[in-house]
Structures are given as structure tokens and as C-alpha cells.
Design goal:
Radius of gyration: 15 Å
Order of helices and strands: EHEHEHHHEHEE
Number of helices: 6
Largest sheet: 6 strands, mixed
Number of domains: 1
Distance between the termini: 36 Å
CATH class: Alpha Beta
């Protein structure tokens, strides 16, 4: 069994590339609840890298695929802005190219997990949409009930066992930690 936590970057000001002081404070409060990771992977976007640093962790790998949403997928997300995990599942079921991108994200998580020893834990820090689509491809039927999309420092935990995705759960911050996404 191997486990991945795929979390969204921490809070930033609208349009800013770096997280703000509130984002750093949230990350510092969340850090003690995370446990140990065998590998930490990040999107190359500064807000994701800032989040890893604010969590007090070091990045083992930076993967551009965590930040590159294909134009056709981006256009669909802008035209039909998903408000929940189930919205992402529905988009992936309706649009073949969205499903393919989601599958690529799930495969990226699988590849990174397979680098770890049995019982290993992986942290991925990336972005809204990337998280939900990867989870939709890995365990679509599980994520239908996850509710709203991942807010800052929220995400999913996925379990890979003998090469199969066997479980998924949503990761939410306690209400006082949960800022409204902007």
C-alpha cells in the first residue's frame, strides 16, 4: 500500500504568483498535522513551491505536468466552471479530451507513488482542477460525494494497493483554517 496526498497550494492574493502572509500562516498551522512524507513533488508555479516551503518541507521533484492544463481543457473549465468534485467527474465523462487529461494526472500520481517503498507516502502540491481531475480518473465513484472543490491546502488522499487505486478521501481544513477561495 502507498498513499498520496494531493493538495492545493495555500492562499494568495488574486492574480499574485506567490502565496501571501495569510497563506504562510495557514501552512504553518497545517504542517504539524501532515505526518511524514517519503517524497514531495510540486508544480513549478511559485505559489505551489512557496506552499511546500511554508509547510517546512523540501521539494524532491518539480513536475511541469502539474501546471500545464491543455488549452482545450482550460476552455471547458472556463466555460463550465466546476464547483464540486462531481462537476469534474461529469466533465471527464462528457468530454474525451478532459478524460484523457484526468487519466494523465492519475498516471502521474501512480508513477510517483511507484517510486516509493511499500507503505510510502507522497505529497503533491499543485492547483485546483488538477487535483479534482486526477482524483476523478483514479476513483471517480468515490469523489462524487466529496462536495465543493479543493480550497487552499485542501485536496485528496488516494491509496494505491498492488497497482490499483483502492480508496479515496477528501482532505478538508477545519472551519477556522478554511479561507474562502478567491
Amino acid at each position: 500500500m502507498r498513499e498520496v496526498e494531493h493538495r492545493r497550494h495555500s492562499r494568495r492574493d488574486h492574480g499574485a504568483i506567490h502565496i501571501n502572509e495569510e497563506g504562510r500562516a495557514i501552512a504553518r498551522r497545517v504542517a504539524p498535522t501532515l505526518g511524514r512524507f517519503d517524497r514531495v513533488v510540486s508544480s513549478p508555479v511559485p505559489r505551489a513551491l512557496d506552499t511546500v516551503e511554508a509547510l517546512g518541507l523540501s521539494v524532491d521533484a518539480v513536475l511541469p505536468e502539474l501546471a500545464m492544463v491543455p488549452d482545450d481543457v482550460q476552455r471547458v473549465l472556463e466555460a463550465f466552471p466546476p464547483r464540486s468534485f462531481s462537476d469534474y467527474v461529469r466533465l471527464a465523462r462528457r468530454r474525451r479530451f478532459v478524460a484523457e487529461y484526468a487519466r494523465q494526472q492519475a498516471e502521474l500520481m501512480r508513477r510517483e507513488l511507484e517510486r516509493l517503498p511499500e507503505g510510502g507516502r507522497l505529497l503533491i502540491v499543485s492547483h485546483g482542477g488538477v487535483i479534482e481531475l486526477g482524483a476523478a480518473a483514479a476513483r471517480g465513484h468515490d469523489v462524487l460525494g466529496f462536495g465543493a472543490t479543493a480550497d487552499y491546502l485542501e485536496g485528496v488522499r488516494l491509496i494505491l494497493e498492488q497497482g490499483e487505486w483502492v480508496r479515496a478521501e477528501v482532505l478538508r481544513l477545519p472551519p477556522p483554517e478554511r479561507p474562502a477561495a478567491r
